[in-house]
Amino acid sequence: MKHGAVLVTGASSGIGLAITRDLTSRGVPVIATIRGAEARARLLASVPAALPIELDITHAEHVAALPAAVQAHSPQGLAAVVNNAGLAVVGPLECVPSAELRRQFEVNVIGQMAITQALLPQIRASRGRFVFIGSIAGRIASPFAGPYCASKFALRALADSLRVEVAEQGVRVILIEPGAFGSRIWAGTGAGVQRLAADFSADSAPARLYGPLLRACLGMLADIEARAPTPEPVADAVWRALTATHPRTRYLVGRDAWFTALTLARLPDACRDWVYRLRLRALLRSTGRGR
Ligand SMILES: NC(=O)c1ccc[n+]([C@@H]2O[C@H](COP(=O)([O-])OP(=O)(O)OC[C@H]3O[C@@H](n4cnc5c(N)ncnc54)[C@H](OP(=O)(O)O)[C@@H]3O)[C@@H](O)[C@H]2O)c1
C-alpha cells in the first residue's frame, strides 16, 4: 500500500467502523470521520488508534476545511479515501417526500463526490486510491427501496466515469458492492418507514394501498438485521482493493450479493418483476393481509 493515511468517512458505526478497526490493526494510520462528541467517544473507545475528524459530508464548510485537516493529521500524505458514509431512504415512491429523496442523494451521491473532489489533489499527489462503498442495490432496483437503489446506481455510474478520467493520473477507483451486513442502517431505515406510515391519514389511499406492505417491510427489515453477518468481510474487501497491485474495478461482498448478481440481476425484466411480485405477495400473506 502507498505511504500515508487512509481517510474513512462515516466511521462511527457499522461498515466504516469495521474498516477503521481493520486498517488500524494492520498498522495503517486512519483518519476517521465522525459527527458529534458521542460518536467520537464511541470510535476512540473501540479503535483508540483512529484519528477522528468531525465531518458532515453534506456540509460545504466542513468539506472545504477537509484538505487542510487531512494535511495536519497526516503530513506524510494521503494514500486512499474510503467513501463510506451513507444512509437508506426507502418507501413507496408515490409517498416519498421530495425532501427525503433529496437527502438520500445529498448524502449518498453528492456528499461522496464533494469529498472526492476536495481530496483528489492529495490522492493524485500520492498516486493513491478511491474506494466507494456502493451496494448490490446499485445493480438491481427492488420495490420500496427506490431512493436507496437510485443513489447506489448513481454512485456506480460516477465511480465508472471517474475511474477512467483519473486513470492516466495514476489514481485508482474501486467500487465495493456489499449485500446485507449488520449495522445501524437497518434501524435507521425502519425508523424512516415508521415515520412514513405514521404520516398516512387513516383510510387515505396510501394507507390502504401501502400500509400493510410497509408494516410487513418493517418485520422484514428487523429479520434482515437480526440475520445479517457482521461487516468484517467488507473491511477485508476494502483491504484487497487498497493493496492489490491490479485491483478489480468492483468487489461483490457477501453470499446474498453474489446470489443476486448471478441470478435475479441477470433475469429479463419481466421475469425479475414477477419474482418481486411473488415475494411481495408472500410478504403480505405472512401478515395475513394477502390473497
Ligand atoms: N449494512 C449494509 O447491509 C450495507 C450494504 C451495502 C452497502 N452499505 C453501505 O455501507 C455504508 C455504511 O453503512 P452502514 O451499513 O455501516 O450504516 P451505519 O452503521 O448507519 O453507518 C453509516 C455511517 O455514515 C455516517 N453518515 C451518515 N450521514 C452522514 C453525513 N451526512 N455526513 C457524514 N457521515 C454521515 C453515519 O454517521 P452518524 O453516526 O453520525 O449518522 C455512520 O457513521 C453506506 O454507504 C451504505 O449504503 C451498507
Short description:
The chain has helices at residues 14-25, 37-46, 60-73, 98-126, 146-167, 185-199, 205-227, 232-243, 255-262, 269-286; strands at 5-8, 30-34, 51-54, 78-83, 129-133, 172-178, 250-253.
List the helices and strands and how they pair.
Layout: E1 5-8, H1 14-25, E2 30-34, H2 37-46, E3 51-54, H3 60-73, E4 78-83, H4 98-126, E5 129-133, H5 146-167, E6 172-178, H6 185-199, H7 205-227, H8 232-243, E7 250-253, H9 255-262, H10 269-286
Parallel strand pairs: 1-2, 1-4, 2-3, 4-5, 5-6, 6-7
Helix pairs in contact: 1-8, 3-4, 4-5, 6-7, 7-10
Bound molecules: NADP nicotinamide-adenine-dinucleotide phosphate.
NADP nicotinamide-adenine-dinucleotide phosphate binds next to helix 1, helix 4 and helix 6.
